[in-house]
Design brief:
Length: about 650
C-alpha cells in the first residue's frame, strides 16, 4: 500500500565505525527490547507500515565497516533512500568519525539524506560537557546532506524509534526541496508552487483568503475544518510576526508563505508536503505524471498540438498580462505569467530566441503562441504542465491532441495538422542560420558564425484562404547530419525538409545534393519519406557555371521541384515559407526518389500489375467454369 507520498517503502542503510552500536540500535527499534548479545551484522529488518503515522514500511539495512565488506557497503548505499550515520557518544572526538563517513558518502556519490545519530548516550561521562549543537553546526554547514542530528540510547531505550522516524521523514517529507537552511527561507520553486495553490484557493480573487476560503483549504488538504477560534489564532500569529500577512479581507499571499516557512522551521514539514501533494506536486515540486494526461503517440510519425480550447485560453492569458495593451509581453510580463510554474520554461534552448520578438525584445501574440506550439511539439508533458501552472482550469485531457499519422495523411493526400516541422539541411556557410533569422523577422548580418548545435525557429504563417499555420524550422548543422540520420525514426517527425546551398558555390551545391540523396534513401528504407525542397541561397551572387543545367537534371531525376532562389541579404525570400507549408500540406508530393527506390517502386508496380492480371484471369476462369456447369446441367435436364 502506498503512503501519502506515493511510496510503498523506505530503505534506510545504517553506517558507522565498528562498535558504535549500529546493530543494537536496529534490534532495539524492531523489538523494543535491548539485546544482551547481537550478531555483528543483522539481516534486513522491517518496521511495518503501522509503525509510524505515515503508514509506510521501513526496511533497515545493517552494514559492516570492515575493509573486506566495502564493496557490499557501497552496493547497499547506492540503493539507500536515507542513511543513518552512527557514532558513539562515549567518544571524546566526535567530529573525526562523522566527517570521515560523510566524505566517504560523497566519494561514493550517495545522494540520500543523512541522519547523524549518537548511540550509547547512557555511556557518556557526565563530567564531559559536550554541546551537540556546537559540534554539529560547522559540520552541517559543510555537509548540507545532513537532514538532522539526534542522540539516543538503545540500552536505556531513549529516542530509539525517533531515529528511524526522522530517517523516514527525511525521505517522505524532505527539507531540501522546500527550505534553504543557510538563508532560512523558502526556496523559489516552493514559493511558486504555494503561490499557485494560494491563487487556486482564492475563489473570489481578491488577493486574500477569507475565513471561509481558509476553512475550505483546510478541509481539502487535511479533511478537517478549522474552528473559528483556530482561524483567529492563526491570523494572530501571522500578524504579530508579519503585519502585512493579514488584511481586512483575510490571509494574504505573504502571510500564507510565512505560515509554511514557520511550519518548516518548527520541523512540521509534513504539513507543507501534504498541501503540495494534495495539489498534485511530486518530490521535485513539479506536477506528477498522474496529473498530466498527455495524449499518447502510438506511432513516431504522429505529433502533438494544442487544441482550439487551449489556444483560446492562451490568448486570454496573453491579454491579461499585456498590462499596457501594446500587443506584446516584455520579459517582466513573462516572468510574472510563469511565476506559478517551477521556472520560466523559455529561458533556455531550444525555446530561447526561437520566436519573433519586437525591437524591444518583447513577445507578440504570434510569438507567444508559436513558442507554445514549439513546446507542445517537442515536450507535450511540459507544455501541459505549464498550461496548468498558469491557470488552465479545463479538463487536462482536452488541452492537447495527437495528430493523425503522416503515413495515413499521404494515403489520403491531405493533412489536418496546424503545426508543421521542417528540417533545414545544408553544408556549412550555405545560409541556413540566416534563413532562420529572417524567418523571425530579424535583420541580415554579414558576420558568419558556424552553428554548432541544433536550433529552432517558429512563426505563424498566414495562408491565402485566411487560415493560419505554425511553421517550425529545425536547423541541423552539417556536423550533426550523420547523428541525425543514425536514428532510423528521425524523419518520422518531419513534415518537410529543405536543403539549402550557396548558389554561387558548386561544392556547396554538390554537398546539398549528397545530403538530399541520403535523406531520400533513408526515407525509402524506413517508409518515412518526406516532402523535400532545394533552396538556392545567396541568389544576389552570381551562380556557378552550369548551375541551371545541374539543378534541372537532379530535380528531374529525383522527381522534385526546381530549386527556390532566395536572397536573405536583399530581402527576397520568394515566398519560401508559404511554399514549405504547401509542401507539408500535400505529404504525398515532392518526395524524392533515388534510382534504387525507383527500381523497387517499378518492381512493386510490376508485381501488383501481374497479381491483378492473375486475379482477373482467375476470376474469368471461375466465371467460365460456372457458366459451363450451368450449361451442362441444363443440357442433361433437357435430354
Amino acid at each position: 500500500m502506498a503512503g501519502v507520498s506515493g511510496r510503498t517503502g523506505v530503505r534506510v542503510v545504517v553506517v558507522g565505525d565498528r562498535g558504535t552500536g549500529k546493530s543494537s540500535l536496529i534490534s532495539t527499534a524492531a523489538t523494543e527490547t535491548f539485546p544482551e548479545t547481537v550478531q555483528p551484522v543483522l539481516p534486513p529488518t522491517r518496521l511495518p507500515a503501522d509503525f509510524y503515522p505515515d503508514r509506510v514500511p521501513v526496511t533497515i539495512i545493517d552494514t559492516s565497516s570492515s575493509l573486506e565488506h566495502r564493496a557490499k557497503l557501497a552496493e547497499e548505499l547506492k540503493r539507500a533512500d536515507a542513511v543513518v550515520l552512527t557514532y558513539s557518544c562515549d567518544n571524546t572526538n566526535l567530529s573525526r568519525p562523522i566527517t570521515f563517513w560523510l566524505h566517504e558518502l560523497r566519494r561514493l556519490e550517495v545522494r540520500a539524506p543523512v541522519i547523524v545519530v549518537g548511540c550509547k548516550l547512557d555511556l557518556r561521562d557526565e563530567r564531559q560537557r559536550i554541546s551537540l549543537e556546537q559540534v554539529m553546526s560547522p559540520i552541517m554547514q559543510q555537509f548540507r546532506e545532513i537532514e538532522t542530528c539526534i542522540e539516543c540510547s538503545a540500552a536505556s531505550q531513549v529516542q530509539v524509534p525517533d531515529v528511524f522516524y526522522y530517517a523516514q521523514k527525511a525521505v517522505l517529507h524532505p527539507t531540501a526541496p522546500l527550505f534553504d537552511q543557510e538563508t532560512q527561507t523558502l526556496k523559489p520553486r516552493c514559493i511558486r508552487a504555494l503561490k499557485r495553490i494560494f491563487i487556486l484557493c482564492d475563489r473570489d480573487m481578491d488577493g486574500a483568503l477569507s475565513d471561509a476560503e481558509l476553512n475550505e483549504f483546510q478541509v481539502q488538504c487535511f479533511n478537517a475544518p478549522l474552528q473559528p477560534a483556530e482561524i483567529v489564532g492563526v491570523k494572530r500569529v501571522v500578524q504579530e510576526k508579519l503585519p502585512d500577512g493579514v488584511n481586512h479581507l483575510g490571509l494574504t499571499l505573504s502571510g500564507f508563505l510565512f505560515l509554511h516557512a514557520l511550519f518548516i522551521e518548527k520541523g512540521r514539514l509534513e504539513t507543507t508536503w501534504t498541501v503540495l501533494r494534495k495539489f498534485g506536486y511530486d518530490d521535485a515540486i513539479k506536477l506528477s505524471g498522474s496529473f498530466l494526461p498527455v495524449p499518447a503517440k502510438r506511432a513516431p510519425d504522429q505529433s502533438v498540438e494544442l487544441t482550439s480550447e487551449s489556444l483560446e485560453f492562451l490568448k486570454r492569458v496573453f491579454n491579461l498580462f499585456d498590462i499596457d495593451n501594446d500587443g506584446a509581453l516584455r520579459h517582466d510580463d513573462l516572468d510574472d505569467l510563469f511565476s506559478t510554474a517551477p521556472e520560466s520554461p523559455w529561458h533556455e534552448a531550444p525555446y530561447r530566441d526561437a520566436a519573433e520578438r519586437t525591437a524591444m525584445g518583447a513577445l507578440s501574440l504570434n510569438g507567444f503562441l508559436s513558442e507554445w506550439a514549439l513546446m507542445t511539439l517537442l515536450d507535450p508533458a511540459s507544455s501541459l504542465a505549464n498550461l496548468i501552472y498558469i491557470g488552465y482550469a479545463g479538463d487536462p485531457s482536452s488541452a492537447l491532441r495527437a495528430t493523425r499519422r503522416r503515413s495515413l495523411d499521404r494515403k489520403k493526400r491531405q493533412t489536418e495538422r496546424n503545426v508543421f516541422q521542417c528540417v533545414v539541411f545544408g553544408p556549412k556557410n550555405a545560409g541556413k542560420s540566416s534563413l532562420l533569422t529572417s524567418f523571425l523577422g530579424r535583420p541580415f548580418s554579414g558576420n558568419y558564425t558556424s552553428t554548432v548545435d541544433e536550433r529552432y525557429a517558429t512563426n505563424g504563417i498566414d495562408e491565402l484562404q485566411g487560415t493560419r499555420k505554425t511553421l517550425i524550422l529545425r536547423e541541423i548543422p552539417e556536423d550533426r547530419f550523420k547523428k541525425f540520420l543514425s536514428n532510423k525514426q528521425s524523419l518520422a517527425a518531419c513534415d518537410a525538409a529543405i536543403f539549402v546551398y550557396d548558389s554561387s558555390d558548386e561544392l556547396s551545391w554538390r554537398r546539398a545534393t549528397e545530403l538530399l540523396v541520403e535523406v531520400a534513401r533513408q526515407g525509402e528504407e524506413t517508409g518515412f519519406g518526406v516532402p523535400c525542397l532545394l533552396v538556392a541561397a545567396k541568389y544576389d551572387l552570381d551562380p556557378f557555371p552550369m548551375a541551371a543545367q545541374d539543378s534541372a537534371k537532379v530535380c528531374q531525376e529525383m522527381g522534385i521541384e526546381s530549386p527556390i532562389p532566395v536572397s536573405v541579404k536583399s530581402g527576397d525570400l520568394n515566398n519560401l515559407f508559404c511554399r514549405i507549408i504547401r509542401a507539408a500540406e500535400h505529404p504525398h508530393l515532392s518526395i524524392p526518389e533515388t534510382q534504387t527506390g525507383r527500381k523497387h517502386k517499378q518492381y512493386r508496380q510490376l508485381v501488383n500489375h501481374s497479381l491483378m492480371l492473375f486475379s482477373v484471369g482467375a476470376a474469368i476462369a471461375v466465371v467460365g467454369l460456372a457458366a459451363y456447369r450451368t450449361y451442362a446441367a441444363r443440357k442433361n435436364t433437357s435430354s
